[in-house]
Design brief:
With 319 residues, this protein is α/β, with parallel strands linked by helices. Helix content is 41%, strand content 9%.
């Protein structure tokens, strides 16, 4: 005899306590169900999906584990005229962000024009001095899907070289990489393209994607009065203010306790205008702020530079 009958025949069980026991079990089960799955960071880290290393070099991809109530502010395509303002806001709020730098983010800035690094060397040095994470977003903002392994490696190397020319040697290497447009990993890219990019990045860059639910969509719906320069920007227009409000609302609406990698761009002043409200709103919800380099340490237990030296690179979290 087993199961329920053997339990009831146990001399140490008082059958009169069973209703109370059932009530306690139901209550505990309901409590656990109400608790979000991301509440336990250690358990969450172990839930990472198993991926083919050939297609997914080490890094963060949408759906990967994040520590709860942690926000990772990230800005692509800088530096621009607006980056100093972002740094001012971060300094005032005592938060760190991740900047994925691109020397020439638009065709009109390609050679023979000076790179963005030549225009804003002080801004770049300030990023390093204030402890922000600095990542590689390629030299010319070209999709990895359009480049073979050698082309990807050349874009990343050229970007790092242009940065060093502008600010001098002695700064940490850009071991974090965000591919332009998220390609080929965004929205389940083609296997051949992921394999090609994976070959290029396996020992040269830790991939840093973002969460779809935390995409600011600041690169959509250009309002009148928003452009890439302060001279061409009018923040007083109703269209501009509506876009800034929409950006803040989208990010804050997603802040339900999950960790979140937030995507914004240095080149969009609407995101700059929304940033103070995003930071204060996240803080009010109990969020802390970290960089993608911090995430690498949380996820793998070592720095991105150390991770790239490992052969073979680990497939899963060691946490």
């Amino acid at each position: 005899m087993g199961g329920r009958d053997s339990f009831l025949k146990n001399e140490n069980v008082d059958i009169r306590t069973l209703p109370w026991l059932a009530l306690i079990l139901i209550s505990a089960t309901a409590s656990l169900a109400a608790e979000p799955r991301w509440a336990d960071a250690a358990v969450l880290a172990s839930l990472s999906p198993i991926r083919e290393l050939e297609h997914y070099p080490p890094g963060f991809y949408d759906g990967d584990p994040l520590p709860p109530r942690t926000a990772y502010l990230s800005f692509d395509d800088g530096p621009t005229e607006f980056t100093e303002e972002i740094l001012d806001i971060c300094a005032q709020e005592s938060v760190k962000a991740s900047f994925f730098l691109c020397a020439r983010w638009a065709k009109e800035t390609w050679l023979p024009q000076p790179s963005a690094y030549d225009l804003y060397p002080h801004t770049l040095r300030r990023m390093y001095a204030q402890g922000h994470a600095i990542g590689n977003h390629t030299a010319n903002h070209q999709s990895f899907t359009d480049l073979g392994p050698q082309g990807i490696a050349r874009e990343l190397k050229t970007n790092a070289m242009l940065l060093e020319w502008a600010i001098g040697p002695g700064y940490p290497a850009m071991t974090l990489v965000r591919p332009p447009f998220g390609a080929p990993w965004w929205k389940n890219g083609q296997a051949w393209a992921m394999r090609s990019a994976g070959e290029a990045l396996r020992n040269t860059g830790v991939v840093c994607m973002w969460n779809d639910f935390a995409d600011s969509y600041d690169s959509h719906d250009y309002p009148r009065g928003e452009w890439y320069t302060k001279a061409g920007t009018d923040r007083s227009t109703p269209e501009f203010m509506r876009k800034a409000d929409k950006i803040a609302q989208r990010i804050l609406a997603a802040a339900d306790g999950r960790g979140m990698v937030i995507l914004m761009h240095d080149s969009h002043p609407s995101s700059v205008a929304a940033l103070p409200r995003i930071i204060s709103g996240l803080k009010a919800r109990g969020y802390n702020f970290s960089t993608m380099e911090d995430w690498v340490r949380w996820r793998y237990g070592i720095s991105s530079a150390e991770l790239l030296k490992k052969k073979p690179a680990p497939r899963l979290s060691i946490r």
